[in-house]
From TrEMBL:
It is a multi-pass membrane protein. The chain crosses the membrane at residues 12-30, 50-70, 82-102, 158-177. GO terms for cellular component: membrane. The keyword Repeat does not apply. Its main location: membrane. Belongs to the L6 tetraspanin family. It is found in: Membrane. It comes from Etheostoma spectabile (orangethroat darter). Keywords: Membrane, Transmembrane, Transmembrane helix. This is Transmembrane 4 L6 family member 1. Pfam families: L6_membrane.
Length: 195
């Protein structure tokens, strides 16, 4: 496979992963699919506000994906200079994926913000009940009942932050592969055969 075709093979999944990351981050703003929590102060998980999925896994990967895809097109950046530039764009994608990965990891480790009550906190109030658990709450499903509102917020955050985590890992791997591919394309050219 020539380096130009490899770029196309890398760019198309990056489009999908960037879109998935953006959608997941937007949905995280609406726990229980209700807008009241986004509008209220202190009722939204802090890691959602970092916008790791929208900015990091979304925009910072989408822009490199467009350039990487263009390096595979004939007569449009499909030359050594274009491949050299794709290394820089892929590096931006790596940074975006690392940012998204970090935000999603923090979101999973700290748990959601919710209206909760537990043995240590006998009066229900808004907060992050799992913040000091180092992620151990993930395996202790009985503690998820501490969160009264939004309904099923632990499952909601777990599903979306896990999706962001997987998407960021795949984006990171694809962008790193493109950096190597871009290096080969810069040194050897975009295709092995002359046209």
């Amino acid at each position: 496979m020539c380096t130009g075709a490899c770029s196309k093979f890398i760019a198309i999944p990056l489009y999908v992963l960037a879109l998935v990351s953006m959608i997941c981050n937007i949905i995280l703003f609406f726990p229980d699919f209700d807008t009241q929590y986004a509008a209220a102060e202190g009722q939204l998980t802090e890691e959602v506000k970092y916008m790791g999925g929208f900015i990091g896994g979304g925009v910072m990967v989408l822009i490199p994906a467009i350039h990487i895809h263009l390096t595979s097109a004939k007569n449009c950046c499909a030359n050594r200079c274009g491949m050299f530039l794709s290394i820089g764009f892929a590096a931006v994608g790596v940074l975006g994926a690392v940012y998204s990965l970090s935000a999603a990891s923090l979101g999973l480790a700290n748990g959601p913000t919710c209206y909760f009550i537990n043995m240590q906190n006998s009066i229900a109030n808004w907060g992050t009940p799992f913040a000091n658990s180092s992620g151990s709450y993930l395996s202790e499903k009985d503690t998820w009942a501490w969160c009264i509102r939004p309904k099923n917020v632990v499952e909601f955050n777990l599903g979306l932050f896990s999706t962001l985590l997987v998407a960021a890992c795949l984006e990171l791997a694809l962008c790193l592969i493109q950096m190597v591919n871009g290096l080969f394309g810069c040194i050897c050219g975009t295709c092995g055969k002359k046209e």
